């Protein structure tokens, strides 16, 4: 990064809080260890979700049933479920017409610790995932463990997780959008996959993000160019 861009980047970091989706890196160790933005925790009786435009956490809806998400839940920054993520889902399941759901990559983080609220970042180690399909949209849920967690941090693959905990996660994601009076939603978990697959899925979500939003490392330079171009235009007037 040029010296002028570095200075502008440092100034912006001092003046403004970074957007959790676009302004924070997934981490130098990704996809082995990923920065994770937590939106909801197991005690939340309402579902919080990032407002994509503002970067603030907003109330999405009250939880519809007594079943609550059994783990802290959020997304990996600078990821996007687009064409490549949908393509991977179609390849693994044999289904046609699958596309990404247009959201950042979801992630659930196993930990022994109680967390009072969402809206914070942690470092997590992906160990597997649930290949969830909502209608015709790929909606993968990466399963990870909190880095250095005493109870779960040693786990390297989803096969080492308590099956009852995985069952609770499956039940939550298959039921949390379904109301008793509604027609059944076309939601399924087509596959539970081990540690190797999140590397592929998350890498694809990185590429999908860049295809949709551009390269994050180019943004400061583009901002500087726009500022100078605007200043030059004003001087001509």
How is the topology of this model organized?
Elements: H1 3-15, E1 34-40, E2 46-50, E3 57-62, E4 73-76, H2 83-93, E5 99-100, E6 105-110, E7 120-134, E8 137-138, E9 141-146, H3 163-175, E10 187-193, H4 196-213, H5 219-236
Parallel strand pairs: 5-8, 6-9
Antiparallel strand pairs: 1-4, 1-7, 2-3, 4-6, 7-8, 7-9, 7-10
How would you characterize the overall build of this protein?
With 237 residues, this protein is α+β, with helices and mostly antiparallel strands. It has a single domain, classed as Inorganic pyrophosphatase (Inorganic Pyrophosphatase, Alpha-Beta Complex), CATH 3.90.80.10. It contains 5 helices and 10 strands. The chain has helices spanning 3-15, 83-93, 163-175, 196-213, 219-236; strands at 34-40, 46-50, 57-62, 73-76, 99-100, 105-110, 120-134, 137-138, 141-146, 187-193. The protein has a 5-stranded mixed barrel. It has a two-stranded antiparallel ribbon with strand order 2-3. Helix 2 packs antiparallel against helix 4. The longest helix has 18 residues, at 196-213. The radius of gyration is 19 Å and the shape is globular.
């Amino acid at each position: 990064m040029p010296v002028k861009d570095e200075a502008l980047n440092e100034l912006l970091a001092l003046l403004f809080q970074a957007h959790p989706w676009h302004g924070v890196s997934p981490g130098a160790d990704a996809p082995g260890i990923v920065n994770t933005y937590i939106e909801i925790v197991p005690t939340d009786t309402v579902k919080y979700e990032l407002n994509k435009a503002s970067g603030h956490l907003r109330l999405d809806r009250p939880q519809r049933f007594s079943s609550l998400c059994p783990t802290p839940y959020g997304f990996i920054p600078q990821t996007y479920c687009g064409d490549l993520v949908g393509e991977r889902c179609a390849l693994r399941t044999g289904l046609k017409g699958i596309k990404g759901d247009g959201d950042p990559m979801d992630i659930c983080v196993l930990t022994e610790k109680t967390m009072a609220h969402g809206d914070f970042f942690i470092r997590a180690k992906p160990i597997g995932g649930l290949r969830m399909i909502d209608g015709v949209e790929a909606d993968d849920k990466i399963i990870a463990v909190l880095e250095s967690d005493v109870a779960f941090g040693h786990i390297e693959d989803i096969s080492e997780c308590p099956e009852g905990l995985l069952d609770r996660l499956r039940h939550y994601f298959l039921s949390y959008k379904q109301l008793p009076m509604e027609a059944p939603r076309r939601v399924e978990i087509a596959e539970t996959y081990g540690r190797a697959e999140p590397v592929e899925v998350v890498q694809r979500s990185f590429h999908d993000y860049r295809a949709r939003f551009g390269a994050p490392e180019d943004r400061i330079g583009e901002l500087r160019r726009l500022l100078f171009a605007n200043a030059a235009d004003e001087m001509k007037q």
